[in-house]
Amino acid sequence: MKIELTSNQSKRKDSFEAFVKKEIAPHADQFDRDEKIPIEIIKKVIGHDYAGMLLPDDHGNNNCDMITYGLLCEEIGKASASLLSVITVHGMVCQSLLKWGSSLQKEYWLPKLAKGDVIGAFALTEPHIGSDAKNVGTSAVFSNGSYTLSGRKRWISCGQLADIFLIIAQCDGKPTTFLIEKDQPGLSILPIQGMMGFKSAMLAELQLDRCTVREEHLVGRLGFGFSHVGMTALNHGRYCIAWGGVGIAQACLDASLDYSAKRKQFGTYLKDHQLIKRMIADMVTNIKAARLLCYHAGYLNETADPDLIMETSIAKYFASKIAVKAANSAVQIHGANGCSSKFPVERYMRDAKILEIIEGSNEIQQLIISDYAY
Amino acid sequence: MKTDEIKADIKKFLSKYIKKTELEDDMELFTSRLINSLFAMQLVLYLEKQYQIKVENEDLDIKNFNTINLITAFVERKI
To answer: Domain limits of chain B?
Structure first.
């Protein structure tokens, strides 16, 4: 068994790293303070074809494998977890439509999503529904060829920026997915601010007040909105977040190596203190383990193996957990400096925590993994 | 592939996930909640990989997936 990036994957990783180092990393702290990512940055991401990397080109060819996509998520996650979440939710919409969209929906939306002319976001969570996702309260009532949706969706990543939303609602008690444009009458978008982490992910609350759409806006079929359309989206989201966790953890390690090699206490560099060495050793080991889980999930996603669902869940669970551990250690190594916004590790810590909650909380992942084990 | 072979394959796959029950060909899988929504996508992936078929938008009907017999018939139509 050879676990090694191909030369093409290595080259693309280097190009992602160079892009992020130049265009994202220097500004990520400012994005966090402003609680938004400037549209110019989003356009640069789009301009590099990062928005629709997994969609087939005009000739039906896939130009990006899942490992390469994961490497992009890691590099972006290292610099800005918020930007990663924008790319993640856009990808969730892309993958859901690619798999379950009607011919008309695919023809109309996929080219626009691929080019980034349209940005997508995924709307499942509600004020009173999080983990119990199948029991969303947003309703969809069918009449005369149209569906009328009423309800609220909250904590929608990229909600302030998205042009279209994939929304899961109950239609006659059956979870069903709809694709709704941002300026559809009856849909209001309210910015959310003041989040602990992912501060520049431009979250929003969606209010659907008798928002009526034609039946062509239904994605998939009645009753398959969560089990098939939603799960396709969530699997993609978990995959991106798993790699993002590796990215944040790596950023924490890099910052800790740098800091501990420059700062002295008791006449000795921090890196030579044994308790610091212990924290570094744990970070290194956990990151390697998480990355291997991500590679495995990537391979299974690439080969469309049925085990991809479970292995992606495992990767997300572990990577988000070790990202939090790495961030805790990084802040500890930095001491009081680690609690200051002048050092990026305090942002990494806030962002890492969010990973344990989104795309299915880690408790849900534990239930999934445990049920699979029996 | 013969019907019996397909049926045996599918039963073997399902048995990995439904361990406590002796599976019968007409046992309702989804409507009886023997399997959950997480498994639904695993079943799609398995059928696509094993039989080189594509499960598409228009195939999303519980009548294609709710029993071993129905899944077998669905696969035979798609092959």
So the answer is: 3-78
A197 & A61 share domain: no
Q: How many structural domains is chain A composed of?
A: 3
Q: Do A100 and B60 touch (CB under 8 A)?
A: yes
Whether residue A2 lies inside any domain: the answer is no
- Residues from chain B that touch A232, judged by Cβ atoms under 8 A, are 41
Q: Is A126 a known active-site residue?
A: no
| A302/B contact by beta carbon, under 8 A | no
Element (H, E) at A180: strand A174-181
Domain B3-78: top CATH class:
mainly alpha
Nearest to A304 among B19, B38, B49 (CB): B49
**String of DSSP letters for A73-132:** HHHHHHH-HHHHHHHHHHHHHHHHHHHH--HHHHHHHHHHHHHTSS-EEEE--BTTBSS-
Domain final residue, candidates A205, A222, A239 = A222
Distance, CA of A202 to CA of A121 (rounded, Å):
11
Nearest to B60 among A224, A306, A368 (CB): A224
* pLDDT (tens place) for every residue of chain A, 374 residues total: 778 899 999 999 999 999 999 999 999 999 999 999 998 899 889 888 888 888 887 777 778 999 999 999 999 999 999 999 999 999 999 999 999 999 999 999 999 999 899 999 999 999 999 999 888 999 999 999 999 999 999 999 999 999 999 999 999 999 999 999 999 999 999 999 999 999 999 999 999 999 999 999 999 999 999 999 999 999 999 999 999 999 999 999 999 999 999 999 999 999 999 999 999 999 999 999 999 999 999 999 999 999 999 999 999 999 999 999 999 999 999 999 999 999 999 999 999 999 999 999 999 999 999 988 88
- Determine contact: A226 vs chain B, CB below 8 A: yes
**Chain B residues touching residue A231 (CB < 8 angstroms):** 37-38, 40-41
